[in-house]
C-alpha cells in the first residue's frame, strides 16, 4: 500500500462528474428506476445508475422503454424516466413522449445529444440532430442542460413540469460533454434540488363548487363520467364516496374501470348507449369530451345530426382551466386537482342529498339487465373455433379471481371486446391504448407494470398489436417478470380473411402468416409458450401462468372471421363517410 493512495482518493472524491450529479438528483427526488436503451453517450450513465443502486431496465427498442416510463408515471404519480441515445434513439422515444403528453402521464425523456457547436453549424456530427427543437412541440416542456452546475435545476424543472397541474411528457436534453464535466463535489451536492411539493394541490373556487352543486341539484337524470384523470388522481375513496352518497349512476372510461368495481350497482356501463343521450346533467370527473366521448355531441348524445348538441348540461372537473368549452358548452367548470374538487363537492353534498329520481334508475336497471343477460348468453356459447367472446370469458374469470392483477390491453377487436367483457375490480389495474388508440404500448406497459407494482400482469393483445413490441418478450424473460401475454390470434389486423383482389401473390394488406406460432417467441428466451385452441386450454394455461408467475405467452387461436373492421370505430374510416 503506497502512501500516495489516500491522497489520490481524496482528490477524486473532491470532484463530481455530470453522470453522478444526474443520478444523485434523480435519487434525491425519489426516482429509483430508469427505463432505457444504452449507447453513446449514455451507456455509462446507465451503468453508473445501476452501480448506485437504481433499477435500470434495458429494452430492445426505445419506444417500449418510453411507453414503460409513461405508464410508470401514470401508476405512481412520479415522472417515469426514459433514457435514450442521440438522434435515432431519441426519435424512437419521441412517440412515447408525445403519447405521455396526450394522455397526461408524467414522463421525462432524458436523451443524450451531440455537441451544440457542431449541431448548430450542421457540421455532421455522429447522430447529429437539433433534438430540443424537435421535442418541444410534442412535450409539455423541453429543457437543455449545458453545465454540470445546472443539472440540479434542470432535473427539478423537468420534475415540476411533468407532474404539476395537468401532467405530461417533458424532454431533457443532455449533450454528451455535460455528463463528463466535473466540478467541485461539495458545490455539486449543494446545487441539487429536492423538489418541495412537486404537484401542489389546486383548491377549486368555492363559487365554482356551489355552481356545480346547483346544476346537479336540478338534475332529473344525472350521470357521472369518470376519466383516467380520476384514476390518476388516487382520490379513490372520495370519488367512491361522492358517487355512493349522491346515488348517481356512473360510466367509467376505459382506464377508469375499477375505480369502483365494474360490478357496482351504480355502474351504467352496460347501458351506455341509453344513458348518454338520455342524461340531463353530466358530471365529468377527469374525463375530456374528446373523440372517445364523441366530442359531447351528435347522435351518441341525443343530438339530431352528427354535429348537433344534445340537451345536456355539463359539469366538468378538471385540473386544466383550458379544458372547458373545448367541444360543447360547460355549464359548471370546476377547476382544481381531482381530490380537492371531489372533496369540496362531497362537503357540499352533505348527508341528506336526495337520490336521483327512481324512474331514471329503474330505466337504467332495465337496460342493464337486458344487455347483461344478452352478454351472458353470448359468453356461455362455446363455438369452434374459439371466438373473442369465448376466449375473453376465460380472461374475465381469471381477472375476477386475481383482482390485483394488472390488465394491459391493445388491438382493435381485441381491445373493444376486452374492455366490455372483462370486469375490473380495483383502481388503475387496466392499462390500455389511451387517447390515441395507439398500437405498441403492450410489452413496454407490461414490463413497467410488473416492475413498479410487483403484481401479476396479464396482457390481452391483438396479433397485430403484439407485433409492435413483440421482441420485448426477451426483456420480460431477462428480468423474470410475472407477465402472461395472451395473443388473440385471428391472423391479421381486424380479421384474417381478406384476400388480394387481383389474385396476385402478395397477401392482402391486413393479413399475416396464417397459423403463426407466437408462443415460440417466448420459448426462445426461456419463457413458457402455449398454443391454445379451446377455452379450456386457455384457462389451464392462464391459471398456470398466474400460479407460477413465469413469463408466459399463450397463442389463443381465434376464428379468423370473428372481428369487424376497426373494431368498434368502423365509422371513423374515411370510406364509411363516403355515401
Ligand atoms: C401506431 C399505430 N399504428 C397503426 C394503428 C392502426 N391500427 C388500429 S388497430 C390495429 C391492429 C388491429 O389488429 P389486432 O391487434 O390484431 O386486433 P384485432 O382487431 O384483430 O383483434 C392497427 C394496425 C394504430 N392504432 N396505431
Ligand atoms: Mg388480429
Describe the structure.
The N terminus is likely disordered. Helix content is 41%, strand content 16%. With 579 residues, it is α/β, with parallel strands linked by helices. The chain is built from 24 helices and 19 strands. The longest helix has 23 residues. Helix 23 links the parallel strand 18 and strand 19. It has a 6-stranded parallel beta sheet, sandwiched between helices. Strands 15-14-16-17-19-18 form a 6-stranded parallel beta sheet, with helices on both faces. A 5-stranded parallel beta sheet has the order 10-9-11-12-13, with helices on both faces. The structure holds thiamine diphosphate and magnesium ion (MG). Thiamine diphosphate binds next to helix 18 and helix 20. The site of magnesium ion has 6 residues, from helix 20.
Percent of residues in helices comes to: 40-55%
- Give the terminus-to-terminus CA distance: 88 Å
Shape: globular
Low-confidence blocks of residues:
1-9
Which structural class matches the secondary elements? alpha/beta
Note the beta-strand portion.
Answer: 15-25%
Question: What small molecules does this complex bind?
Answer: thiamine diphosphate, magnesium ion
Strand order of the largest sheet: 3-2-4-5-7-6
At a glance:
This protein has 24 helices and 19 strands.
Question: How is this fold's topology laid out?
Answer:
Blueprint: H1 4-13, E1 15-17, H2 18-28, E2 33-36, H3 43-51, E3 55-58, H4 62-76, E4 80-84, H5 87-103, E5 107-113, H6 116-120, H7 131-135, E6 141-144, H8 151-163, E7 169-175, H9 176-180, E8 182-184, H10 185-191, H11 206-217, E9 222-226, H12 228-232, H13 236-246, E10 250-252, H14 272-278, E11 281-285, E12 313-318, E13 332-335, H15 338-349, H16 358-380, H17 388-401, E14 406-410, H18 413-421, E15 430-432, H19 442-453, E16 457-462, H20 463-467, H21 473-478, E17 483-489, H22 519-523, E18 528-532, H23 535-548, E19 552-557, H24 574-577
Parallel strand pairs: 2-3, 2-4, 4-5, 5-7, 6-7, 9-10, 9-11, 11-12, 12-13, 14-15, 14-16, 16-17, 17-19, 18-19
Antiparallel strand pairs: 1-8
Helix pairs in contact: 2-3, 2-8, 4-5, 4-19, 11-15, 13-15, 17-18, 17-23
Amino acid at each position: 500500500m503506497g502512501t500516495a493512495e489516500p491522497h489520490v482518493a481524496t482528490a477524486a472524491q473532491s470532484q463530481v462528474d455530470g453522470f453522478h450529479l444526474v443520478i444523485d438528483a434523480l435519487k434525491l427526488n425519489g426516482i429509483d428506476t430508469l427505463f432505457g436503451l444504452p449507447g453513446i453517450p449514455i451507456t455509462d450513465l446507465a451503468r453508473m445508475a445501476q452501480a448506485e443502486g437504481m433499477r435500470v431496465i434495458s429494452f430492445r427498442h426505445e419506444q417500449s422503454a418510453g411507453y414503460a416510463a409513461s405508464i410508470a408515471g401514470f401508476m405512481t404519480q412520479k415522472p417515469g424516466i426514459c433514457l435514450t441515445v442521440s438522434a435515432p434513439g431519441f426519435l424512437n422515444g419521441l412517440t412515447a413522449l408525445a403519447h405521455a403528453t396526450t394522455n397526461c402521464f408524467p414522463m421525462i425523456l432524458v436523451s443524450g445529444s451531440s455537441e451544440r457547436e457542431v449541431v448548430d453549424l450542421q457540421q455532421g456530427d455522429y447522430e447529429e440532430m437539433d433534438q430540443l427543437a424537435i421535442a418541444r412541440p410534442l412535450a409539455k416542456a423541453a429543457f437543455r442542460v449545458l453545465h454540470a452546475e445546472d443539472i440540479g435545476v434542470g432535473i427539478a424543472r423537468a420534475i415540476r413540469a411533468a407532474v404539476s397541474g395537468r401532467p405530461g411528457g417533458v424532454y431533457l436534453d443532455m449533450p454528451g460533454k455535460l455528463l463528463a464535466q466535473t466540478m467541485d463535489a461539495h458545490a455539486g451536492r449543494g446545487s441539487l434540488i429536492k423538489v418541495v411539493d412537486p404537484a401542489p394541490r389546486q383548491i377549486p373556487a368555492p363559487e365554482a363548487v356551489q355552481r356545480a352543486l346547483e346544476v346537479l341539484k336540478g338534475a332529473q337524470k344525472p350521470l357521472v363520467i369518470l376519466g383516467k384523470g380520476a384514476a390518476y388522481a388516487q382520490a379513490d375513496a372520495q370519488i367512491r364516496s361522492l358517487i355512493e352518497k349522491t346515488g348517481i349512476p356512473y360510466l367509467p372510461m376505459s382506464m377508469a374501470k375499477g375505480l369502483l368495481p365494474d360490478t357496482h350497482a351504480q355502474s351504467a356501463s352496460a347501458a351506455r348507449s341509453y344513458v348518454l343521450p338520455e342524461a340531463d346533467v353530466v358530471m365529468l370527473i377527469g374525463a375530456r369530451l374528446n373523440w372517445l366521448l364523441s366530442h359531447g355531441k351528435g347522435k351518441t348524445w341525443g343530438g339530431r345530426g352528427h354535429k348537433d348538441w344534445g340537451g345536456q348540461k355539463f359539469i366538468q372537473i378538471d385540473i386544466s382551466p383550458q379544458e372547458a368549452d373545448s367541444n360543447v358548452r360547460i355549464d359548471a367548470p370546476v377547476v382544481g386537482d381531482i381530490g380537492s374538487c371531489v372533496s369540496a363537492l362531497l362537503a357540499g353534498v352533505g348527508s341528506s342529498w336526495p337520490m336521483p329520481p327512481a324512474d331514471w334508475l329503474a330505466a337504467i336497471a332495465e337496460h342493464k339487465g337486458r344487455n347483461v343477460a344478452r352478454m351472458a348468453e353470448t359468453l356461455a356459447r362455446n363455438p369452434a373455433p374459439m371466438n373473442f367472446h369465448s376466449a375473453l370469458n376465460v380472461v374475465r374469470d381469471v381477472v375476477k379471481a386475481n383482482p390485483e392483477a394488472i390488465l394491459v390491453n391493445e388491438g382493435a377487436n381485441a381491445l373493444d371486446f376486452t374492455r366490455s367483457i372483462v370486469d375490473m375490480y380495483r383502481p388503475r389495474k387496466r392499462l390500455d391504448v389511451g387517447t390515441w388508440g395507439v398500437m405498441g404500448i403492450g410489452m413496454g406497459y407490461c414490463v413497467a407494470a410488473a416492475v413498479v407494482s410487483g403484481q401479476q400482469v396479464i396482457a390481452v393483445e391483438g396479433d397485430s398489436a403484439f407485433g409492435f413490441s413483440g421482441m420485448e418478450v426477451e426483456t420480460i424473460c431477462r428480468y423474470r417478470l410475472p407477465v402472461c401475454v395472451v395473443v388473440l390470434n385471428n391472423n391479421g389486423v381486424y380479421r384474417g380473411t381478406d384476400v388480394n383482389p387481383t389474385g396476385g401473390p402478395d397477401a392482402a394488406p391486413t393479413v399475416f402468416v396464417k397459423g403463426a406460432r407466437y408462443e415460440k417467441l417466448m420459448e426462445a428466451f426461456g419463457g413458457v409458450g402455449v398454443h391454445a385452441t379451446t377455452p379450456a386450454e386457455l384457462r389451464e394455461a392462464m391459471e398456470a401462468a398466474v400460479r407460477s408467475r413465469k413469463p408466459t405467452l399463450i397463442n389463443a387461436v381465434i376464428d379468423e372471421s370473428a372481428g369487424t373492421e376497426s373494431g368498434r370505430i368502423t365509422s371513423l374510416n374515411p370510406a364509411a363517410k363516403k355515401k
